[in-house]
Sequence to fold (107 residues):
Amino acid sequence: MPIPLETYERNKRLVPKGAEVVMLKDEVITFFDDGKCGFLSKITNRCKIYNERPEVCRKFGEDMRLPCPYLKPDGTKRTLLEQKLVMADMDRNIETMIEFIKKKNGN
Ligand code: SF4
Fold:
């Protein structure tokens, strides 16, 4: 997910070496080879910046079209099967997510 630049700068020490980091204008996207977010702990499977997660991540679970693939709305982790089901569903809703990000960026 795109993370605001300020949030990334404050927390970049939490992104492990080997994660891709793509700098955008005011945002940063960081992810692993498997596509998982760079701020998702490979040990706990939890968001390392949960209290600072970006708006689009906060919408996960609130907007049923944007469920978080890794975490439930209460912050607990999903099972692998649940992750796969959510990701399959997200593929169908990817346009919704792109529209959300564009609207957030004023495009
Ligand atoms: S909620 Fe998930 S996608 Fe969002 S920053 Fe945290 S780990 Fe990344």
Q: What stands out?
A: The first strand starts at residue 3 and ends at 4. DSSP finds four helices and three strands in the chain. Residues 17 and 38 are 10 Å apart (CA to CA). Residues 3-104 form one domain.
